[in-house]
Amino acid sequence: MKSTKNSVSDVEAGPGAPRSKADRAYAFIRQRVLDGQRTPGERLVIEHLAREMDVSVVPVREAIRRLEAEGYITYTRNVGATVASIDLERYPETVETLAILEGVAIGLAGPHITAKDIKDARALNEQMRACVDSMDPSKFTAINMRFHNILYSRCPNRHLLNMVVKEWGLLATTRKSAFAFIPERAIGSVAEHEQMLHLIESGCPAEEIEAFARSHRMKTARSLLRHIGNEMSDDNVVAPAP
Predict the structure, then answer these.
(1) Which of 56, 115, 137, 194 could make a disulfide contact with 179, Cβ separation 3.0–4.6 Å?
(2) pTM of the prediction?
(3) Architecture of domain 90-236
(4) How far apart are CA 65 and CA 60, in angstroms?
(5) Chain segment 96-140, per-residue pLDDT in tens
(6) Residue ranges of domains in the chain
């Protein structure tokens, strides 16, 4: 019988793959956080992870430290490493950063987004509409990430694109639950997606597309913050451009 153990050597194999065991352990754990296999608040036992990946505890410890520095994991004395949950202080900063970076990226991507990209994005948006009707926030969020990826991935500035991808990763765990808290926002989000596609199709200036994309991101953030009772005023968040 073939072993089902997940060897760290199998993670991200191929051209451009991380070469050290610590890099591969990092990719292994990070992916499981992003895809929901490791949920917010779940404790990560280093020894168990090492056995799962068939490596020593040393590269796992290095990976945990790196993931903690990037905000995916929280380390607490006498508790250990746990998957990060919503941080009401850090969440607005992460959303603000993503709103600015992704807005610019989608604005720059506009001329490079193809008719097929628009068609694919619109099909995903219709799937999201169906998820709203069936009250499936987890599926909605997964499709939403794919929708945005189609648009920002056409950004010609590779350095900016890498920063957007990183910030989406930091936000991913929180966003798995965001639309479960604020299902009414999901309806507005679908409508705004269609507006964004129309702006791109119409060849609107990059600045107009950027402003709309940034506003779209911040509306979801503000809705969630209001729902969870955060009393942060609008003066403490980046206001979308008019």
Answers:
(1) 137
(2) 0.66
(3) Up-down Bundle (1.20)
(4) 9
(5) 899 999 999 999 999 999 999 999 999 999 999 998 888 787 788
(6) 8-83, 90-236
